[in-house]
Write the C-alpha cells for this entry.
Amino acid sequence: MTMEITINKPLKDNYVFIRRETLTKAIMAGNRLKVIVPAGEETINAAEWLKSGFKIEKVFKIKDHPMVLYGGKLNIQNNKQCKIF
C-alpha cells in the first residue's frame, strides 16, 4: 500500500523535503510513499529517505516549535511533457 504526497513546487531539479511526521506514519503503517511533482512521480521507501535524507529544521507558524524536514532528490522515471505557450 502507498501513501500519496503531492508537491507542487519542488526546490530545484526535483529536490523535495518531506516532514518527519509523514515519514514516520508511513514507516509505522508499512507503506511506501508516492511523491508526485509536476515533472512526474516516484515511489520511495520512507525508512531509506529518513536515513539518507538531508535534515533541516524550519520554523513556520509556531516560533519555538520547528518542523523537521528530510530532503532528497527524486529520480523521476516518467517525465511529463510541459507545454510552453
Remarks:
- Helices lie at 20-29, 46-52.
- Residues 20-29 form the longest helix (10 residues).
- The chain has two helices and six strands.
- Residues 61 and 67 are 9 Å apart (CA to CA).
